[in-house]
Design brief:
Shape: elongated
Distance between the termini: 172 Å
Number of strands: 96
Helix content: under 10%
Radius of gyration: 56 Å
Number of helices: 9
Length: 1449
């Protein structure tokens, strides 16, 4: 029966074999053998039996039956037929799966346990413990059994019944197939696979076989192994990309984790080798200071507080609007900071904006950046302080500007380069910052730098925010005011740095400013400046303005001096070189030569304080009662306003008038009304005149001596104690000086200890010491406690002395000139002088100088007004301190001026009496007309009819300190000559002696002499200096608009833009330029811009009264349709005049929004007005012309409207400039803000060139602003007209020292072979003669004729040795042949008040300075180079010096 089996063909191969295949249905049955031999019948062998076994199914204890995780254990259960439960000889093995799997192919075995197979046991029910009809084994696949990529390999079951061979059970997964899963590794695209940052999601990718969507990956603490019982876990489902995202939240339970993985339905399997380490930043802890603040420029270090920080970590800061991933660094940081040994450092370069913070981004190793929003920082910075100048002992408030400034901060100043942690040497005061400021009081000078501490941060040094503690300075200045009239005065000095300043004027010679001074001079009292302003280009100097009204005039020749207090608490300081002249007219006198009559000119003489040429006077009716009435009222009697010359003015009455009042206008002031009675002259006889002349006083000295005594003991002026004190004082002084008490007068005694102001009068005896000599001696005594001054009864308490020398020249009265026919010689009327067609005669100088050695003096008489006819003028000498016969030869004579002759000279001989006398003696010379009935219109000018002649003493009573006569070549020792030298005359100066003296010739002359640096170094007045006295203004002066040249226009010249200006400003504009307008020129156009004919789009016109016109026509008053009453129509008038012949920097601006117009001159706003043309817009593409007024674009200039003067740095702007921009524009080269600059014309050689080689005389000026928005590549170049325009040397500047013109550098001197201590020479004289055998050129300034150089012990204002120069009064060396000409002899007095100046300041030296130089003398130089290159020649000379001597007093 083949139901259960089938027969098989038997093949015999060494043995008989038969193969049987039993169907599954036969499993569990036992079969016996039926055998059929060949064709025989089947034969049954019942004893030969075979059992059929079969595994019918299997299952697993957990998870899926077709899945197993490598290394995980899984119970597998088998059920089927023929299972033998009594023995354990059944086995299973797994082979690499395929449908044709070979269970005996050892290459495909899966190693299970210790071998390739596993025994089975009978299964037991876990719940009941009963045995089951199944076998079982606990299966665990090793990692090696996991299929390689792409993980498609399954494993098939091979089951072995006892001794039977293994049978494979192929099938689909879940039917005898088992897939082995495993996590082979973890990877990530972001950072390190084993690192996770707290609160930062991290994506991990799981590699292996069987990883699939829905699996669960879980991390548990490293110290736990039970995945199901972990105390903490981080889990996430696997997505279809085999990725999972994990995040460590706070609080952190562990900083080390390992992996538990759950495949599908499998149980979790722990992968202890797959670790995850947590990195966590808690905060940054500042090593110094606060955790949340830092300071720009100061390195800030933090300790990294957290877990897992390493040296490879990176840190940066960002703003709120930026993510950590962006390539951005806040605070000016240039690179991410690296953690090193747990510390990270930052140096911020910019602060956090106000009300903002920077937030931290931290990057652990290779991890992504994480923003820590709760870790913030504010970066502070001090950007500026409100001052960089302070003064010792003047408490000064300093405000701090910047980011993060707050109360609780601290600030201090330390010496430059000093340590912020050091003590605050040189200052005291509050360091705590309150409301962004604090107050300092420096006690020492020097340069200091700011150290600032924000909160608890360390002090940070700011080397660029320094304060220079300097002694406050006020530039020497003489101001003028009119008594009774409020006057605003401006001073230049160390202003604008302090608040609460105060000042007062004190009497001349007060010397100090202590608390017990008398009432302020002039009744002005103590007052504060109206304003103090810092010059932003030079913070050391600013401008102060103040207004005061003086009730009294200052004494003539003794202006009041300034006491100024910087700051509310600082001390007052005396500024003797800052003077105030309070002017007044005291009297009005009819000139003695005038006759009061209608239609006849008369001359009125004025006396008072501060009168000068150029003042104006007007006579008004007596009904005028106010100053304003002077301008509002007509002149009395048909007279006109007159210009005052020599304190006199001429008036002509055409109408009768009963009484008049004087309206007087001092130069620069408004009219002041004076109700003065007219004083008539009184006749004097000739004898009295001669007596007065003999009693002339030449010099007096005002002295203030302070005594350390109690003023209260003599306060009562009527007390005997006061009288006794005065007597004792005069006795002490006269005794100490060895003079008669009659030469001393006490002026006043004031408190402040005791201060005695007294006068030293001149002596009638010429052999006595002068007042100058006496106060010099007195000053020396006051500084020497062993002197006779300290032996006096009261002067033994002397403390200090101040003096002032006053020179008084009394004109001798002489016999009056006889009146011409027709003139009334009345004593009570005016003498009105008409135009003198025959001339007005006068001396060329009020004083002439000579020496006794000079033998003669030449006087010159000039003729002005008419030159018609021959006129004779008589001259006569009169004695004063110089006596006829002893000192000069009485001389008289007549000068004849032929028709047309304008000058004549005469000589007076002087006598060398060989006696030691005062430094000089004087006599007078008077002019008179010689009566001539044919001459009806000639006169001698009253103010200049008398000249003084000063004769300086020559020689001395004793031996000279030094002498070198060079009287003859044979008598001169060669060694004596070799000791002399020439300085400043090239590398090889020559020096020789012949019959004329010691000679030298000029080696450098002509153009070689010019040196622009000298040209820019005038220390006092334009051109009033020699080159070596240059002060360095060229480098430091902020007001110098220095350039190599300027453009000069003569009224026909102009500069026109080469093309229409396409980028012309439309809604806001400023025009700036340096301009120097001739004072006598007609009104001209500075800048004209035209778009269409007949109208001015923009016009700046009339240097005498600047106006700005926009989009309008100029119409004269006569042409106005509405009548001439409205005056010329020319836009908005500023009233600003710059037509004074001086350089000015002009800036005029306009804006459309509100029609605002401003005009600045020299950086000061002089006009602000409008609205003018508000809301209008200017048109572009017009033509710009400088120097001419266009009536149509590009031509048709208005006649006689051209500008006459010089210009430089013409700029056109598209914006309204502020004062800082304007001041910056004054400097050259320009380094200011160029935003909106449309046009910039610089008329310098490097910016001006020929338009093209083929166009003769056509030049173009570059547009230095560049192309900008212009459509033209070269920008807005300018074409310079061929006619009327010229590039000339020049230096535009508003500094009073410029322009100086051509100043020359190689000034050579004779250097005397003497140096060392010449103290005994003080008050003595230096004498010498100069003679030029040949010379050609212009004569030099008299300043610098003699130079005294001090040694190292003498210190000037700039810290270098003192240098003094003498301004000669004796003239240039005589030029000619020695046989016919005598040398020019000079007798130079060696004291501080005799024409010496401190160089380069130009100030008069003090006695102490003069004595210091003579006490440590380095060199004595006498200028031989007296001629300079100019129109008269190349400036070359051959000069001899002789008769040189230095005498003690």
């Amino acid at each position: 029966d083949e139901r259960y089996g089938r027969s098989a063909t038997v093949s015999t191969i060494g043995s008989a074999l038969a193969e049987f295949n039993v169907s599954t249905e036969a499993a569990g049955d036992t079969f016996s053998l039926c055998y059929k031999f060949s064709n025989e019948r089947w034969y049954h062998y019942p004893e030969i039996m075979i059992n059929v076994y079969a595994v019918e199914t299997y299952w697993v204890g957990t998870g899926s039956k077709d899945e197993i995780v490598a290394t995980a254990e899984k119970d597998v259960y088998f059920k089927g037929k023929g299972l033998n439960f009594s023995t354990t000889d059944s086995q299973i093995r797994w082979v690499n799966g395929s449908l044709e799997a070979d269970c005996e192919d050892s290459s495909k075995y899966v190693k299970i346990g210790s071998g390739n197979s596993q025994k089975l046991v009978r299964a037991t029910d876990d719940e009941t413990g009963r045995r089951m009809a199944a076998t079982t084994a606990t299966v665990s696949f090793p990692s090696q059994s996991v299929g390689s990529t792409p993980y498609t390999v399954d494993y098939l079951l091979c089951y072995k019944f006892a001794t039977e061979p293994y049978k494979a059970y192929p099938g689909t997964r879940g039917a005898w197939r088992m897939a082995v899963y495993e996590v082979s590794g973890v990877s990530t695209l972001n950072g390190d696979v084993d690192i996770i940052v707290s609160e930062k999601p991290k994506v991990l990718h799981f590699d292996g076989y069987g990883v699939s969507n829905g699996d669960i990956a879980m991390w548990i603490p490293n110290d736990e192994t039970d995945c199901d019982a972990a105390t903490a876990a981080i889990s996430s489902k696997i997505d279809k990309e085999s990725n999972a995202t994990f995040k460590i939240d706070l609080p952190i339970h562990s900083f080390g984790w390992h992996l538990c993985y759950k495949f599908n339905k499998e149980e979790y399997l722990l992968y202890p080798s797959l670790k995850l380490h947590v990195r966590h930043l808690d905060h940054l802890a500042a090593v110094e200071g606060a955790n949340t603040t830092a300071v720009v420029g100061d390195e800030k270090a933090f300790k990294v507080v957290g877990y897992g920080a390493s040296d490879s970590d990176q840190v940066k800061w960002v703003t709120d609007d930026v993510t950590c991933d962006e390539n951005y660094l806040a605070g000016g940081l240039t690179a991410n900071s690296l953690v090193s040994k747990g510390v990270v450092k930052f140096t911020f370069e910019s602060p956090t904006p106000e009300d903002s913070v920077f937030r931290l981004c931290y990057k652990f190793a290779n991890e992504e950046w994480k923003m820590h929003k709760d870790i913030t920082i504010q970066v502070h910075e001090v950007t500026n302080v409100t001052t960089d100048v302070a003064f010792p002992y003047s408490p000064q408030e300093v405000a701090f500007l910047g980011y993060g400034i707050s109360d609780g901060d601290a600030a201090k100043f330390v010496p430059v380069g000093g340590d912020c942690a050091a003590s605050t040497v040189g200052l005291y005061g509050s360091f705590d910052v309150v409301n962004g400021k604090t107050t300092y009081n420096f006690t020492a000078g020097g340069a200091f730098e700011l150290c600032y501490r924000f909160g608890v941060e360390p002090f940070v040094r700011y080397p660029l925010l320094g304060i220079g503690v300097v002694t406050p300075n006020i530039e020497a200045n003489v101001s003028y005011a009119v008594t009774g009239v409020a006057k605003v005065v401006y001073l230049i000095g160390s202003f604008g740095h302090t608040t609460g300043d105060s000042l007062r004027w004190v009497v001349n010679g007060a010397g100090d400013c202590n608390d017990t001074w008398p009432d302020a001079a002039g009744g002005a009292g103590e007052f504060s400046p109206v304003s103090t302003t810092v010059n932003h280009e030079d913070n050391a100097m600013g401008v102060a303005s103040f207004s005061s009204t003086f009730l009294e005039a200052s004494p003539s020749g003794a202006p009041w001096q300034l006491c100024y207090r910087f700051g509310a608490l600082g001390p007052y300081k005396f500024y003797g070189e800052v003077a105030m002249v309070a002017r007044i007219v005291d009297s009005m006198t009819l000139d003695a030569s005038s006759t009061l009559a209608l239609d006849v000119p008369i001359s009125l003489l004025f006396d008072g304080t501060g009168l000068e040429d150029g003042d104006k006077a007007t006579l008004v009716e007596s009904a005028v009662t106010t100053d304003a009435g002077c301008s509002a009222s007509a002149a009395a009697g048909g007279t006109s306003e007159a210009v005052v010359v020599g304190k006199a003015a001429s008036f002509t009455f055409s109408e009768a008038v009963d009484d008049v009042k004087l309206c007087y206008q001092f130069v620069g002031e408004t009219y002041r009304l004076y109700a003065l009675e007219l004083t008539m002259p009184e006749a004097e006889d000739a004898g009295a005149a001669e007596a007065d002349a003999a009693d002339v006083v030449v010099e007096t000295a005002s002295v203030l001596l302070t005594l350390d005594l109690d003023f209260n003991t003599i306060a009562d002026e009527s007390s005997p104690e006061r009288a006794a004190f005065e007597t004792a004082f005069l006795t002490d002084i006269s005794g100490a000086l060895g003079i008669d008490m009659s030469r001393l007068e006490i002026v006043s005694i004031i408190s402040g200890s005791i201060k005695v102001k007294f006068t030293v009068l001149a002596s009638n005896d010429p052999t006595e010491a002068t007042a100058t000599d006496l106060v010099s001696t007195l000053t020396t005594m006051a500084n020497d406690p062993s002197s006779a001054l300290f032996d006096g009864n009261v002067t033994s308490a002397s403390k200090s002395i101040v003096f002032n020398i006053t020179t008084i020249s009394y004109v001798p009265s002489v016999a009056p000139v006889a009146a011409s026919e027709g003139e009334a010689a009345t004593s009570g009327g005016f003498a009105i002088v008409p135009y003198q067609q025959n001339g007005i005669f006068q001396f060329s100088s009020p004083v002439y100088y000579t020496t006794e050695k000079g033998r003669t003096v030449e006087l010159k008489v000039t003729r002005t007004e008419g030159t018609l006819g021959t006129v004779q003028v008589a001259y006569t000498t009169y004695p004063a301190t110089a006596k006829e016969g002893n000192d000069f030869i009485a001389t008289s004579g007549v000068l004849t001026f032929a028709d047309g002759v304008t000058s004549a000279t005469f000589n007076v001989n002087v006598v060398d009496d060989g006696l030691k006398e005062s430094n000089f003696e004087a006599f007078f010379v008077q002019l008179e007309l010689v009566e001539d009935l044919t001459i009806s219109s000639a006169m001698v000018a009253a103010a200049h009819s008398i000249a003084t002649v000063r004769i300086y003493d020559w020689g001395g009573s004793g031996e000279p300190i030094f002498a070198a006569n060079f009287s003859s070549q044979s008598s001169v020792d060669a060694a004596e000559v070799s000791a002399w030298s020439i300085v400043g005359n090239g590398p090889e100066p020559d020096l020789w002696v012949d019959e004329f003296g010691l000679g030298a010739s000029d080696k450098l002359y002509g153009p070689e002499e010019y040196d622009q640096s000298c040209d820019l170094a005038a220390p006092v007045e334009p051109c009033d200096h020699s080159c070596q006295y240059g002060g360095g203004y060229m480098e430091s002066d902020p007001l110098l608009g220095r350039s190599a040249s300027v453009l000069s226009l003569n009224g026909s010249g102009f500069v026109q833009a080469e093309h229409p200006i396409s980028d012309f400003p439309t809604t806001s504009t400023t025009v700036t330029m340096w301009v120097r307008a001739a004072s006598n020129s007609e009104a001209g156009s500075l800048f004209s811009y035209s778009v269409k004919a007949g109208a001015h789009e923009l016009l700046i016109y009339d240097q005498h009264s600047l106006s700005l016109m926009l989009q309008d026509q100029m119409v004269s008053a006569a042409q106005r349709y509405d009548g001439p009453e409205g005056g010329d129509r020319r836009g908005i008038r500023t009233g600003v005049s710059i037509a004074d012949g001086e350089w000015h920097f002009l800036a005029i601006s306009w804006r459309s929004s509100d029609g605002h117009v401003q005009a600045y001159v020299d950086g000061i706003r002089l006009f602000e007005g409008g609205p003018y043309k508000p809301g209008e817009e200017l048109k572009a593409n017009g033509t710009a012309v400088m120097g001419q007024l266009q009536r149509a674009p590009g031509g048709d200039f208005k006649p006689n409207a051209g500008f006459v003067g010089q210009v430089q740095s013409v700029r056109l702007w598209k914006r309204e400039l502020g004062v800082d921009d304007i001041i910056a524009g004054m400097k050259h080269p320009f380094v200011g803000n160029t935003m909106g600059l449309v046009l910039d014309w610089q008329f310098t050689p490097e910016n001006v060139a020929k338009l093209s080689p083929s166009v003769a005389e056509a030049y173009v000026v570059t547009d230095s602003s560049g192309r900008g928005d212009s459509v033209y590549e070269a920008g807005n170049r300018g074409l310079i007209s061929a006619d009327g325009s010229q590039i000339v040397p020049g230096t535009p500047s508003i500094h009073p020292m410029y322009p100086c013109g051509e100043v020359y550098s190689n000034i050579w001197h004779f250097s005397l072979p003497i140096a060392g201590d010449l103290s005994v020479a003080y008050g003595g004289r230096l004498q010498f003669g100069l003679f030029a055998t040949a010379a050609a050129g212009e004569t030099r300034s008299p300043r610098g004729a003699v130079v005294l150089k001090g040694g190292e012990s003498t210190v000037g204002a700039d810290g270098t040795p003192l240098e003094l120069s003498y301004t000669t009064v004796f003239g240039s060396p005589t030029v000619g042949e020695l046989e016919t000409h005598r040398p020019t002899y000079s007798s130079v007095v060696l004291d501080a008040a005799s024409g010496w100046l401190v160089e380069p300041e130009g100030a008069t030296p003090t006695t102490a300075q003069m004595e210091a130089v003579l006490g440590d003398l380095d060199a004595v130089l006498i200028r031989g180079d007296e001629y300079v290159y100019g129109e008269k020649g190349p400036g070359q000379e051959v000069t001899y010096i002789s008769d040189v001597a230095i005498y003690p007093r």
